[in-house]
Write a structure and sequence with these properties.
Elements: H1 10-23, E1 44-46, E2 49-51, E3 55-60, H2 67-74, H3 77-80, E4 84-89, H4 93-101, E5 107-111, H5 112-120, E6 126-134, E7 140-145, E8 160-163, H6 169-180, E9 189-192, H7 195-203, E10 209-213, H8 216-224, E11 226-231, E12 241-248, H9 249-254, H10 256-272, H11 276-286, H12 291-296, E13 301-302, H13 308-311, H14 313-320
Parallel strand pairs: 3-4, 3-5, 8-9, 8-10
Antiparallel strand pairs: 1-2, 5-12, 6-12, 6-13, 7-10, 7-11
Helix pairs in contact: 2-10, 2-11, 7-8
């Protein structure tokens, strides 16, 4: 069970836990309560004063990266800031970003690539409101069937490789890894699959290899016998910024106190989940895994505070592999709400 802190909002948190237990990952059917809506016009009191809007929707991709988000909800950190948060799951970072662009989410957790691609191409003016994770050793890997067609990195050339979505951090990291190791990344064919399906796809021979993050690395090994052939978060992508939370610039500009309240709650929760004893029960519920799997997974590096120089590595890599045409200033995308 998720730990409960303050009693305020406890009934909603109990319903959240029940949804987690029944669905593995929380998927809300509610699309209301957006910052741009008219039903929540009244200001609500937050931790440091009033927020412009209290009811917000946060969409995320399926991963353990969102452990601080759920921990903040379970402990009442959002309640303490005057926020009523609805959490929704999306199939990928691109899908989560589309929820934001379509007005179905206020904040979205995604790999940084879709955020920066949309910003660079003029699809949307996006601000990064909170960091989430960077790659730790053995948390972003290529897996293959044991004794299959790929047993070492050199075997990747000319093969089909499954990724959660193309044009995201998944295929970009593979290309970077292959280039750094003198392999022809242009020879591979990327096949889109959801994270929960990749290990089975590899085991069934639908693809020769696939990119996985935790807990799917550990789950894939247990259920399908897939094995890691390369840790792709090495060399130029060691400790690489993987994911964060974004919002439309208009949302940030019109609701600075709401954004600041979200940032404070996320920073507090992120500090807490550095303790493995705290985070393991959370990921059991958010990822729908048992205690044994939770004890085995390799955890990413959890972050909340945004660092411009570290974040700049993402658009630089995107330029290198043709995801965007020109250099993008990551510092200009960081949300620094003026609450005065």
């Amino acid at each position: 069970m998720l730990h409960h802190g303050t009693t305020r909002g406890k009934s909603r948190r109990s319903r959240l836990a029940g949804m987690v237990l029944s669905a593995g990952l929380v998927v809300s059917v509610s699309g209301c309560g957006l910052l741009s809506g008219e039903d929540e016009a009244a200001e609500s009191q937050g931790g440091d004063g009033s927020v412009e809007k209290s009811a917000i929707t946060v969409a995320h991709l399926p991963s353990i990266d969102v452990a601080p988000l759920y921990y903040a909800e379970s402990q009442g950190y959002f309640d303490d800031e005057g926020l009523d948060v609805t959490i929704e799951q999306a199939a990928s970072g691109q899908a989560a970003t589309q929820k934001m662009l379509g007005g179905d989410a206020d904040f979205v957790q995604s790999s940084y690539v879709p955020f920066m691609a949309a910003h660079a191409k003029g699809t949307a003016d996006i601000k990064i409101v909170s960091d989430a994770v960077s790659a730790a050793p053995d948390t972003f890997v290529l897996v293959a069937e044991k004794d299959g067609p790929v047993t070492k990195p050199e075997d990747l050339e000319g093969k089909k490789i499954a990724v959660s979505a193309t044009g995201t951090i998944a295929d970009t990291m593979v290309m970077s890894y292959m280039k750094a190791n003198g392999l022809d990344h242009e020879s591979v064919e990327f096949v889109q699959m959801s994270f929960p399906d990749i290990a089975a796809g590899v085991a069934n021979g639908d693809v020769a290899a696939g990119t996985l993050i935790e807990p799917f690395i550990t789950m894939g090994a247990e259920a399908h016998g897939v094995t890691t052939v390369a840790d792709i978060a090495t060399g130029p992508t060691e400790d690489f910024p993987l994911a964060g939370y974004g919002a439309l610039a208009e949302t940030v500009e019109q609701n600075p106190k709401t954004v600041a309240a979200f940032q404070r709650a996320m920073e507090k929760a992120t500090n807490d989940v550095q303790d493995r004893e705290i985070v393991e029960p959370v990921i059991q519920e958010t990822a729908g895994i048992d205690a044994d799997i939770a004890s085995l997974v390799n955890l990413p590096n959890f972050h909340a505070t945004l660092d411009a120089s570290r974040l700049q590595r993402v658009p630089d890599l995107m330029v290198e592999f043709g995801l965007i045409d020109e250099k993008l200033d990551a510092d200009g995308m960081i949300a620094r709400p003026d609450t005065t």
